[in-house]
Amino acid sequence: HILPITLSKNHYDVIIGSDILQQCGTLILPLLKQKKVFILADQTVADLHLDKLIHSLDLVHVNYEVILLPPGEKTKSFQYYEKVTQTLLEKGVERNSTILAFGGGVTGDLAGFSAATVLRGVPFIQIPTTLLSQVDSSVGGKTGINTSVGKNLLGAFYQPEAVLADTKILDTLPQRELQAGYAEIVKAGLINDPELFKWCEKNGKKIISKEHACLAKAIEMACQFKARVIQNDEYEQQSTGRNLLNLGHSLGHTLEAELGYDGRLLHGEAVALGCCLIFKLCTQMGICPEKDTQRVIHHFESVNLPVTIKRLPQPIRASNLLNHLKHDKKSQNNKITFILVNGIGKAFTSQDVSEKQLYNLLIEDGCIQD
Ligand code: NAD
Ligand code: ZN
Fold it and tell me: Is 267 a catalytic residue?
């Protein structure tokens, strides 16, 4: 499947298919300005799949250099940004070279930001290898790294030349990572695509058991959804646009920050829990039917995603979460901006949640009082 994305200045295709990695060389050749690519690869992904990528490049006589990156969120840092850009320059990267990001969202974000800034911009191609990066981070042009002040606070909007999503590459992805990525697909449905959510209710189990045809369909629908949103609001300037993609993310990020990026709570798991909390909050506020909230909780539970703070591996203090939320980059004029819901597929932006309402919800959901 080919999904075209048309933005104000760029146009690119998301190419989805099983085992397209072995045709990568042929697929990207028409996009290259020079037969020279720099592959920035997650070490784990490289161990498993780099041979195939390199073989496909050899077939069309494309030269390559490989830069390996240690897996994990810590790599999306100043330190690795410096290492990567320095190495690219030392290895002779030119304006006409192309950077290939070969890994999950961490690799894509770091490689994209490096591509955006080295020599003031070198073309890059995304080959996302996690479900999360195939349905979310590789499409849309948000690139960046983390800082000690917070996640993703340094970055650029920089669109790729193409995105190649190979469903077969997901065969080696750990089950928990797959489930976490799936949470972002469900989130898309919850925002404004109730049909997608219905489809998820019917096919969720097949997706987490990695049925290829189903996975391809899910990736296609989620990318279509994301394309619609970013085509209307490329630079996140409207409250009804890209911003809505953050459903469940403010709370999700604070939970991630509390449990510390060491694998105890994956990003997608935090998003699933964050979405459940928003639905519970909105039902309490009287703006979302209880039955919608129950459906959402039931669905996330059925695919082994967390739905309540009670079951997290560590007790969480409500006041810690609130403090994090207030420092979130989305807080403006001391008010926390939330994406709320009037039901499944009915998300909107609001600054009308009081601290008291939030605190009560967190306590009710299992946080410790102080
Ligand atoms: P990740 O890149 O850390 O990958 C998760 C783990 O899976 C890593 O250990 C990696 O080595 C391993 N892995 C990757 N592909 C594999 C494969 N095919 N087989 C076996 N193992 C594999 O995590 P992620 O979930 O892909 O991405 C998370 C990052 O994405 C976060 O930093 C988040 O901020 C970012 N993100 C960015 C955007 C955006 O718009 N740019 C959107 C959402 C998330
Ligand atoms: Zn996310």
Answer: yes
The residue segments making up the domain with residue 302 are 176-364
Question: Ligand 2 centre from 268 Cα, in Å?
Answer: 6
Q: Domain of 159: which CATH number?
A: 3.40.50.1970
Question: Within this chain, do residues 199 and 345 fall inside the same structural domain, yes or no?
Answer: yes
Q: Is the Cβ atom of 258 under 6 angstroms away from ligand 1?
A: no
Q: Active site includes 327?
A: no
Query: Does any ligand 1 atom lie closer than 6 A to the CB of residue 365?
Result: no
Q: Tell me the CA distances in angstroms from 284 to 80, 247, 255, 287, 344, one per residue in order.
A: 44, 17, 21, 8, 15
Residue carrying the six token digits 């919850």:
190
Strand partners for 102 = 41, 127
Q: How far is the CA of 246 from the centre of ligand 2 (A)?
A: 7
Q: pLDDT value at position 238?
A: 83
Q: For ligand 1, is residue 137 a contact (CB within 6 Å)?
A: yes
Binned average pLDDT, 10 residues per bin, the chain of 370 residues: 90 95 97 97 98 98 98 96 98 98 98 98 98 95 92 94 97 97 97 96 95 93 92 86 93 89 90 98 96 98 96 91 77 77 96 90 92
Q: Is residue 369 assigned to a domain?
A: no
- In whole angstroms, give the CA distance from residue 115 to residue 126: 11
170 DSSP assignment: G
Question: Which pLDDT does position 327 carry in this prediction?
Answer: 76
Whole-number pLDDT of residue 326: 82
Q: Positive or negative, the Cα torsion across 274, 279, 284, 285?
A: positive
Residue 334 has a pLDDT of: 67
Q: DSSP letters of 42-80?
A: EHHHHHHHHHHHHHHHHHTT-EEEEEEE-SSGGGSSHHH
Quick check: ipTM above 0.90? yes
Per the CB < 8 A criterion, the answer to whether 178 and 131 are in contact is yes
CATH of the domain at 228: 1.20.1090.10
